[in-house]
């Protein structure tokens, strides 16, 4: 803890200390190894900088390169002008110097700044480097690499999604509807793996996870090993460095085939859950062996939990489909981990996050041995229970050995029960959704040309078809929107199609006059949004700049709304749903605020006025509880204001928040009131037992704590039953 | 648990953004410190039972948002508070200058019926200090604040004493507080190593 606070000290007090080191200093050892930067080598060959000759080509793939932090001008600008992560956007948005930031500014690709094989250098020489150039420089360089790869991956992803669309369109022309294509693909992919084997694997995993002694686990130990393993990585897999030739399709092929060829020979199992699941599908027979290996090797429940939870995540998102269509499997599999030791999470997560497909939200191994990272990227810090987030904080850790076993077991069983619930719910829900979407597709007079919108009949939104909309609403309430469809459905429901103008987003970021007051606040708040989430943790976290950009763009587009605290939490959650796709996230946020919330929602006076309507709704729906609360002189505003201003994102576990947003996307503002009543309804019995308003506040204002057992489905069901009088008009 | 006969006191934390209101509370509540906290929006609530001089009080801690936009909400939170802890950042002159406004807000809402505490936080940032201890003391005196302290949530410096002092000003303790200033007081749940070095060098 001391370490971390010292590391973060400057930021903590908002005295961002920039390194005085000039960028022009080259870091000696790097000089000769331009094409073998540490991250690219250990994580993905995609990272390699394309040869300068291809720069233009890369750039031409739309403006989306801006989407991700790209390092530019590192060698020429002073460090001060590159606020974080070497991001072009940040440089642009901060300095507003008028010059449009380059997408891939080839001039900046000085060989001197490309770091090389630090991971295989001796500790001594690393120490030497740090002494000579400062840790800041080194770290900055590494993050630059990451950012750069992030950018490239963004391009690849976009390119692949374009390809996907074209392919689907081609298939449509031959008479297949999109849904048919998707379900066929899924079936095809599912049949390649034995589901029985998977089920039995899961059972084994669960058993082992439940029975294992958790006390034996040592965080330091793992961290140590992890560090060493990183150091050894490239030694272990020198063959895997592929030449990047900027031909993405070929690259994927090469990577995939190479990987598949190699994988059967790798006898040991990396604790990386994704690799595990990949090998699960390919070689079920080796699983138990690998599993045992992993258990004995790490004597860690962590990896087991990761395995289990990853299994559960795979259930949530039928990944095969995504992978198959986007080509991202190649990326994931390509990471040359033929090492049986853990990889430090930071590297790994940065790498996977960059690829922005939903799998990257999978549970990962511990962050420097400190805790878990859940499906939404929240780090469950085991050393603290103070934090509001993580929503589940356990008390384990080296400092409190006595509580390790109990709480970890609690965590295990909680995780397992979540996994089970999800498995069941998702299976059933997904089926219903697919049926419904299929039905919609078939209702179109020409189902094969209209393929882009899920919720449309003959290109007309289902809002125009009352009975369909009712049916849709019902599925949303009973099943929730599956993760798989959520981004697309939210996108459609928030009317992005009509709100958005191509290119406007980047224009807003790069050239529009700044909204100074808001932007100062935004800069202060981005660090204070999800400090316990891997995507928004610090300067190197992939989501942080995007969060800032989106908030800035919004404040510039709507200066009269500007920026209001609370938006930061909303956008961060949206970024998680939209897998870090910045532009989409921005437009959905615009749609959410403009279309779904009342026009002066973030001016606050509006909220307060509306909150005054709560007593009426309470009196009608919860007469007994309302009387009790009145007797205790509970002021609802004190509880509900936070819920409203952040659309619950600060106050409830993420998965429940997203379910609530499903409702808001469908029916708008009024749902916030219904959910509020439902939340009180869920805990009615407890609340009736409280004898003072303080107990009520204490409870209701800390619902995201571990001990609160709140089920999303139950809440949503209850909220759908809340009656609100028509005279309470919540529409604009 | 006969909670109902506990005396309850409402303490509001006020001050500019990012001066460390949440971190003070977190240090007190859990004895931890993070370099970053989620920004407080609207208002947060925590409560803690405190044992002191054989008596037990329940403290309600109201943590408020610093963003200007939320300022209009705050009077209603101040309304029935017993103690107002107004925090500034010793490394930010601006946060110190704006103390006056906060104190005024409190006085408008509560008159003299509130104990005003002025706290200069981040006292570990010696190199970046912009407000001297003397300036802080002078201001506290000028506004009739009962308590003035410099603290460091990061190091845990003076946080324990702050809450001890606050507790002692509460009606519950006023009499007892005079008898045993230091020795008699004992708080459980707090294991802060009370760093006495004034310079507060970062121990990390």
UniProtKB/TrEMBL annotation, chain A:
Residues 35-44 have a biased composition (Low complexity). This is Rab-GAP TBC domain-containing protein. Residues 74-98, 276-297 have a biased composition (Polar residues). It holds the Pfam family RabGAP-TBC. Residues 480-668 form the Rab-GAP TBC domain. GO terms for molecular function: GTPase activator activity; small GTPase binding. It comes from Wickerhamomyces pijperi. Residues 1-59, 74-106, 254-298 are annotated as: Disordered. One of its GO terms (cellular component) is site of polarized growth. Gene3D superfamilies: putative rabgap domain of human tbc1 domain family member 14 like domains, Ypt/Rab-GAP domain of gyp1p, domain 3. InterPro entries: Rab-GAP-TBC_dom, Rab-GAP_TBC_sf, Rab_GAP_TBC_domain. PROSITE patterns: TBC_RABGAP (PS50086).
From TrEMBL, chain B:
The keyword DNA-binding does not apply. It is a lipid-anchor. SUPFAM superfamilies: P-loop containing nucleoside triphosphate hydrolases. Gene3D superfamilies: P-loop containing nucleotide triphosphate hydrolases (3.40.50.300). It is found in: Endomembrane system. GO terms for cellular component: endomembrane system. Keywords: GTP-binding, Nucleotide-binding. InterPro entries: P-loop_NTPase, Rab, Small_GTP-bd, Small_GTPase. Its main location: membrane. GO terms for molecular function: GTP binding; GTPase activity. NCBIfam families: small_GTP (TIGR00231). This is GTP-binding protein YPT6. The lineage of its organism: Eukaryota, Fungi, Dikarya, Ascomycota, Saccharomycotina.
């Amino acid at each position: 803890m001391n370490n971390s606070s010292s590391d973060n000290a400057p930021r903590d007090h908002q005295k961002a200390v920039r390194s005085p080191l000039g960028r022009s200093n080259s870091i000696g050892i790097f000089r000769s190894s331009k094409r073998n930067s540490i991250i690219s080598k250990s994580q993905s060959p995609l990272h390699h900088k394309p040869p300068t000759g291809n720069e233009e080509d890369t750039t031409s793939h739309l403006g989306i390169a801006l989407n991700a932090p790209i390092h530019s001008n590192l060698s020429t600008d002073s460090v001060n002008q590159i606020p974080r992560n070497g991001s072009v956007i940040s440089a642009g948005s901060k300095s507003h110097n008028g010059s449009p930031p380059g997408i891939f500014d080839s001039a900046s690709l000085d060989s001197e700044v490309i770091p090389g094989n630090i991971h295989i250098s001796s500790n001594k020489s690393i120490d030497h480097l740090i002494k000579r150039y400062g840790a800041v420089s080194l770290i900055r360089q590494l993050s630059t690499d990451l950012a750069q790869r992030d950018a490239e991956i963004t391009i690849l992803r976009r390119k692949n999604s374009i390809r996907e669309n074209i392919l689907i369109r081609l298939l449509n022309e031959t008479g297949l509807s999109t849904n048919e294509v998707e379900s066929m693909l899924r079936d095809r992919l599912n049949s390649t793996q034995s589901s029985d084997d998977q089920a039995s694997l899961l059972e084994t995993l669960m058993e082992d996870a439940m029975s294992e002694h958790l006390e034996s686990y040592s965080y330091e130990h793992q961290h140590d090993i992890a560090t060493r393993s990183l150091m050894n990585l490239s030694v272990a897999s020198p063959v895997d460095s592929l030449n990047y030739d900027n031909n993405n399709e070929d690259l994927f092929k090469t990577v995939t085939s190479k990987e598949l060829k190699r994988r059967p020979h790798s006898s040991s199992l990396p604790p990386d859950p994704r690799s595990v699941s990949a090998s699960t599908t390919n070689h079920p027979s080796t699983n138990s062996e690998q599993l045992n290996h992993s258990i004995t090797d790490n004597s860690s429940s962590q990896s087991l939990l990761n395995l289990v939870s990853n299994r559960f995540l795979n259930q949530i998102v039928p990944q095969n489909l995504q992978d198959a269509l986007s080509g991202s499997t190649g990326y994931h599999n390509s990471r040359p981990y033929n090492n049986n030791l853990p990889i430090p999470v930071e590297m790994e997560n940065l790498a996977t996050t960059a690829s922005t497909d939903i799998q990257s939200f999978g549970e990962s191994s511990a962050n420097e041995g400190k805790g878990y990272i859940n499906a939404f990227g929240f780090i469950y810090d085991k050393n603290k229970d103070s934090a509001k987030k993580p929503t589940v904080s356990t008390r384990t850790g080296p400092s409190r050995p006595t509580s390790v076993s109990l709480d970890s077991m609690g965590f295990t069983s909680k995780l397992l029960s979540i996994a089970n619930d999800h498995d069941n719910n998702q299976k059933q829900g997904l089926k219903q959704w697919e049926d419904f979407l299929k039905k919609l597709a078939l209702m179109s007079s020409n189902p094969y040309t209209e393929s882009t919108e899920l919720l449309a009949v003959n290109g007309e939104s289902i809002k125009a078809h009352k009975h369909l909309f009712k049916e849709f609403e019902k599925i949303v309430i009973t099943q929730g929107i599956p993760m798989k469809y959520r981004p697309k459905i939210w996108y459609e429901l928030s009317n992005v199609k009509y709100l958005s103008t191509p290119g406007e987003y980047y224009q807003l970021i790069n050239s529009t006059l700044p909204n100074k007051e808001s932007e100062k606040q935004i800069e202060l708040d981005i660090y204070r949004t999800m400090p316990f989430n891997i995507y928004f943790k610090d300067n190197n976290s992939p989501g942080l700049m995007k969060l800032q950009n989106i908030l800035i763009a919004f404040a510039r587009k709507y200066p009269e709304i500007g920026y209001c605290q609370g938006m930061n939490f909303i956008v961060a959650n949206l970024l998680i749903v939209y897998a870090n796709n910045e532009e989409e996230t921005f437009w959905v946020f615009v749609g959410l605020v403009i279309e779904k919330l009342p026009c002066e929602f973030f001016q606050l006076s509006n909220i307060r006025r509306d909150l005054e309507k709560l007593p009426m709704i309470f009196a009608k729906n919860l007469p007994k509880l309302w009387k009790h609360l009145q007797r205790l002189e509970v002021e609802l505003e004190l509880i509900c204001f936070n819920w409203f201003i952040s659309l619950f994102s600060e106050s409830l576990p993420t998965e429940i928040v997203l379910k609530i947003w499903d409702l808001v996307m469908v029916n708008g503002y009024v749902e916030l009131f219904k959910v509020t009543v439902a939340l009180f309804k869920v805990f009615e019995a407890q609340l009736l037992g409280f004898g003072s308003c303080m107990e009520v506040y204490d409870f209701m204002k800390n619902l995201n704590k571990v001990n609160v057992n709140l089920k999303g489905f139950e809440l949503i069901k209850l909220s759908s039953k809340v009656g609100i009088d028509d005279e309470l008009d919540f529409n604009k | 648990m006969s909670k109902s006969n506990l005396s309850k006191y409402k303490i509001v934390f006020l001050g500019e953004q990012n001066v460390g209101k949440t971190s003070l509370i977190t240090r007190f509540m859990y004895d931890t410190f993070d370099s970053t906290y989620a920004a407080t929006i609207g208002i947060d609530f925590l409560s803690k039972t405190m044992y002191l001089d054989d008596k037990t009080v329940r403290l309600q801690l109201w943590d408020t948002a610093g963003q200007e936009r939320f300022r209009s909400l705050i009077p209603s939170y101040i309304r029935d508070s017993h103690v107002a802890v107004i925090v500034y950042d010793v490394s930010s002159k601006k946060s110190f200058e704006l103390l006056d406004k906060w104190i005024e807000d409190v006085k408008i809402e509560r008159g003299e019926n509130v104990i005003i505490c002025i706290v200069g936080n981040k006292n570990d940032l010696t190199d970046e200090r912009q407000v001297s201890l003397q300036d802080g003391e002078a201001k506290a005196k000028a506004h009739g604040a009962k308590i003035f302290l410099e603290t460091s949530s990061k190091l845990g410096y003076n946080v324990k004493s702050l809450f001890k002092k606050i507790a002692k000003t509460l009606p519950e303790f006023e009499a007892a507080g005079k008898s045993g200033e230091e020795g008699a007081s004992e708080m459980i749940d707090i294991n802060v190593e009370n760093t006495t070095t004034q310079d507060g060098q970062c121990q990390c």
